[in-house]
């Protein structure tokens, strides 16, 4: 309980600081949110979305799960995406993975963690798909880093394949999907340069339909 009391105390001081700086801050936010970005990231406590990109409350719509996966049967993630595109009309969807991801590591090590192993199944598929590339790498750390990157690239693809994004592009919405990766060791984000914008999206969908 002592620890939780600390959190509530932090919150009280934070709210006071914000209000002192901008008296209307919470009143305006309560009236509406107009985030320009949807963040799809890992649940890892070391990758706090708003903080690492310097955005304030109201500026980032966030979905996080273990290993930043976009699964076509996951109503939770798909609903967040659909709401972000149809209602909030975000301009950018950012899939941000991170090096040293526990989910990716568990797949590589073949660890048995419980139900979460089931959740991580898509990463096993990615590992199989890129087995040659991964096996050719020098050590486990390199393999882990590479699989973290490959996972982000695949999830960007999965976002582009959702009905919500197809519909948005069809409507002429200019939405771009980005793939980023965060380094736990240096706090820096790298753009993997696998973005799909609305014109590339049309091309992508034509290709995947074949
Ligand atoms: Co992770």
Write the layout of secondary structure elements.
Layout: H1 2-21, H2 25-31, E1 37-42, H3 49-52, E2 60-65, H4 75-86, E3 92-98, H5 102-109, H6 115-119, H7 121-129, H8 131-135, H9 140-161, H10 163-170, E4 176-182, E5 189-191, H11 198-209
Parallel strand pairs: 1-2, 1-3, 3-4
Antiparallel strand pairs: 4-5
Helix pairs in contact: 5-7
This protein binds cobalt (II) ion.
Summarize the structure.
This protein is an alpha/beta fold and 210 residues long.
Architecture overview:
The mean pLDDT is 95. This protein has helices at 2-21, 25-31, 49-52, 75-86, 102-109, 115-119, 121-129, 131-135, 140-161, 163-170, 198-209, and strands spanning 37-42, 60-65, 92-98, 176-182, 189-191. It has eleven helices and five strands. It has two domains: 1-32, no CATH class; 33-209, Beta-carbonic Anhydrase, Chain A (3-Layer(aba) Sandwich). The chain starts with a helix and ends with a helix. Strand 1, helix 3 and strand 2 (60-65) form a beta-alpha-beta unit. A five-stranded mixed β-sheet has the order 2-1-3-4-5. By secondary structure, it is of the alpha/beta class. The protein binds cobalt (II) ion. Residues 42, 44, 67, 98, 101-103 line the site of cobalt (II) ion.
Features:
alpha/beta; 11 helices; 14% strand; 210 residues; 5-stranded mixed β-sheet; binds cobalt (II) ion; 5 strands; Beta-carbonic Anhydrase, Chain A; globular; 2 domains; 53% helix
Gross geometry: globular
Category by helix and strand content: alpha/beta
**From N to C, what is the helix and strand string?**
HHEHEHEHHHHHHEEH
CATH architecture of the largest domain: 3-Layer(aba) Sandwich
Q: Which radius of gyration do the C-alpha atoms yield?
A: 19 Å
Distinct helical segment count: 11
The CATH H-level homologous superfamily of the largest domain: Carbonic anhydrase
Portion in beta strands: 5-15%
Mean pLDDT: 95
**DSSP strand tally:** 5
CATH topology of the largest domain: Beta-carbonic Anhydrase, Chain A
Helix content: 40-55%
Structurally, the number of domains stands at 2
Distance between the termini: 58 Å
Which regions contain 5 or more consecutive residues with pLDDT less than 50? none
Largest sheet entry: 5 strands, mixed
Question: What CATH first level of the largest domain would be assigned?
Answer: Alpha Beta
